[in-house]
Amino acid sequence: MHTNDDPQPGLDVVVVGEALVDIVVSSGGSVEHPGGSPANVAYGLGRLGAATALLTSIGDDPRGAAIEQHLRSAGVELLPGSKGPGRTATATATLASDGSAHYDFDIRWDLPRIAPATLPKVLHTGSLATFLAPGAAAIRDLLEQSHERCLVTYDPNIRPALLGSHFEAKTNFEQLVPFTEVVKLSDEDALWLYPRLSLEDISQHILDLGAGLVAVTMGAKGSLLTTAGAQVAVPPVTAEVADTIGAGDSYMSALICGLLMRGSDGLAPSVLESLGRMASRAAAITVSRPGANPPTAEELQAELPQHQTVAP
């Protein structure tokens, strides 16, 4: 892999991870839409006005073309090497008459041994791509080479059914954390990884592994942002919930956007509160409407205090 010390001109964020097609099957037929947590984060960042590119692995089939068109609609660039022969990964949810869902995944994760010729301001990764071989090894190499020269953010977005043993998954997670600055995870992720610890103790443990900021989302209970010097509990933003699809990814997109805009105060408590409130507001907008439909910069700006701005 080749990297460079200088941020890539005009590029705020590079997201590395899986893009797939979500297929929902019900008695009324099937509906497909682009998904995958890293792709959702990239899409959300594009909608918020951040210059964003995605390094992924999709096929040269109609589903891959649909993903590419979806990303481009938000201004997200698909990096070279992301598209190759074969079929695009899918996640199929089959809905029963009682509304419950059975999930089937068709995903193989590999990543070309390439990286952006120069580094962006922020490098984000997460989800299945950081756990599934052989692509997970390429991501670890990239983070190891890059973390001292750009801000690295990480959302493990745990999917237990696809991760093998708990020990293997936790080991993979803990091996990546030292190469990251910001780790965001849901309370469900945190308690699956560390079932015997409190969220406060889990946050401290992740800081001890090498992270600089840990953000734990707690759904209707808000979020908890922790650094070595401060811990800020951000209250929830009330919203009429259509569904929760994409809420965590929208929170992550807005958190990255806020990190791009922070001034000289670093991660002071006031900055943590501002970051958390902006990210929570973005997630609330997303849950208020069906599907993974994150806000635009204009929509989020309209919901924030006048002193806060969205555009990076």
Defining key terms:
alpha/beta, 4-stranded mixed sheet, 9 helices, disordered N terminus
What would your notes on this structure say?
The protein is α/β, with parallel strands linked by helices. Helix content is 34%, strand content 22%. It has nine helices and 15 strands. The protein has helices spanning 37-47, 62-73, 135-146, 166-176, 187-193, 199-209, 247-261, 269-287, 297-303; strands at residues 13-16, 20-26, 29-35, 52-55, 58-59, 77-78, 83-84, 90-95, 101-106, 122-126, 151-155, 182-186, 213-217, 223-226, 231-234. The strands form three sheets. The chain has a nine-stranded mixed beta sheet, sandwiched between helices. Strand 14 (223-226) and strand 15 form a beta hairpin. The longest helix is centred in the last third of the chain and has 19 residues, at 269-287. Residues 1-8 have low confidence and may be disordered.
Write a brief structural summary.
With 312 residues, the protein is an alpha/beta fold.
